[in-house]
Design goal:
With 382 residues, the protein is mainly alpha-helical. It contains 20 helices and no strands. The chain starts with a helix and ends with a helix.
Length: 382
């Protein structure tokens, strides 16, 4: 009888109920909120569902992220091995290949001035960098945090790993992906506050056709120019442009389909769950996390504002040929930010069609954020 009692007692005490802290309960609640936003509201479900589920798992069963050095049998937790691929910057680079294979750079090629708006939208990154230093973060940590302003999760994870700031990877990645998913909520008030109704109603001329030769040469030339100037951007820019070359060359359809579908979705599962699993209560519920979330919001807001304000300037320079709203798409949340530009523009004039025009700054923002990450790596000699 005592054996049965002891066995039952051991089984009961092995349940998660006896090991949950208030912090674990709070993180489980946050995970459930993320799942609600992803499933019910449709906010970037491909990202938020795996992130939220990884968060849920690690706060009920921390050993799923166990380091093999800390286990008796030398075998680590399942998501620990996924997370190593984040630290080694492998998964973010593969994500960029998939993005390149899915992205049409035609609007950017047809309207090169979009590069300026994509660059202006990086304002928030550099502002957040200096603010993070003032808040007490080290220079490398400040750089890793600031990339949140580009609303680019893979680049945030990539830079965090390269700069050796993996202790902040969970909060940085969750903040970056959260702001990516909340683009439709965060950006419109900023866009409307900085533009007049007349500016929002501006209709832009149809983009010129882009030849196949231009489409093929673009990823090759961008890779050569950017990587020669900032070699450290090669993993991101190289994979982005390789994926795009798959798409535009037209001779490797199988590779294009694999990079943009099967491989992309596999990588999203691995990256999302491992990022979510890095948010255990012990690692996540700290004052630094709140600072990172706040800095990310500031960076994202100023990035949006920077793009819109340059759009206003270009609107005046071109005598009303550019709608300032497309500047907000300079943050690299592709294609969500471009859709928001379209939505706000159509609210002012239902016949206004800005989506393709906004895709120019949007894809320029992807390149701009990668360049910003490369600039920080060059500064710190990584």
């Amino acid at each position: 009888m005592s054996y049965v009692t002891e066995t039952l007692g051991n089984l009961i005490h092995q349940t998660a109920f006896f090991n949950l802290s208030w912090g674990n309960l709070l993180m489980i609640l946050v995970a459930l909120v993320f799942l609600y936003l992803a499933i019910k509201k449709g906010y970037e479900p491909l990202l938020l569902v795996p992130i939220a589920f990884g968060m849920l798992l690690v706060n009920m069963y921390p050993e799923i992220m166990a380091n093999p050095e800390d286990t008796s049998n030398g075998v680590g937790g399942l998501l620990h091995y996924f997370y190593i691929l984040d630290e080694w910057s492998i998964l973010p680079s593969l994500i960029f290949m998939g993005v390149g294979a899915m992205t049409d750079f035609g609007p950017l090629i047809a309207n090169p001035i979009s590069f300026l708006m994509g660059a202006a939208a990086q304002l928030g990154i550099y502002l957040a960098y200096f603010m993070a230093i003032l808040m007490g973060f080290s220079d490398k940590a400040a750089a890793a945090i600031s990339i949140i302003g580009g609303a680019d999760g893979p680049t945030s994870i990539f830079l965090c790993g390269k700069l050796g700031q993996t202790q902040y990877m969970g909060p940085i990645a969750v903040a970056a992906y959260s702001y990516m998913s909340l683009v439709p909520i965060i950006q419109p008030p900023i866009m409307k506050a900085l533009t007049t109704e007349e500016e929002r109603k501006i209709k832009m001329e149809q983009l010129r056709p882009v030849s196949k030769l231009e489409r093929i040469l673009f990823p090759i030339i961008v890779t050569i120019v950017v990587v020669l100037i900032l070699p450290s951007t090669a993993p991101l820019i190289g994979m982005l442009m390789l994926g795009n070359l798959f798409r535009e060359s037209g001779v490797v359809k199988q590779l294009t389909e694999t990079a943009s579908n099967a491989l992309m979705y596999i990588v999203v599962i691995l990256l999302g769950t491992s990022v979510g699993a890095s948010t255990s209560a012990e690692a996540f519920l700290k004052m630094d996390t709140l600072k990172i979330v706040a800095l990310g919001m500031i960076a994202f807001a100023f990035g949006t504002a920077g793009g819109v304000l340059l759009g206003k300037l270009l609107c005046k320079v071109t005598k009303g040929k550019i709608n300032p709203l497309i500047g907000s798409a300079g943050v690299s949340a592709v294609p969500m930010a471009a859709r928001v530009s379209q939505k706000v523009g159509s609210e002012a004039d239902p016949s206004n069609f800005l989506l393709m025009h906004a895709m120019g700054p949007n894809v320029a923002g992807v390149i701009g954020t990668a360049v910003a990450a490369g600039t920080f790596m060059a500064i710190f000699g990584v």
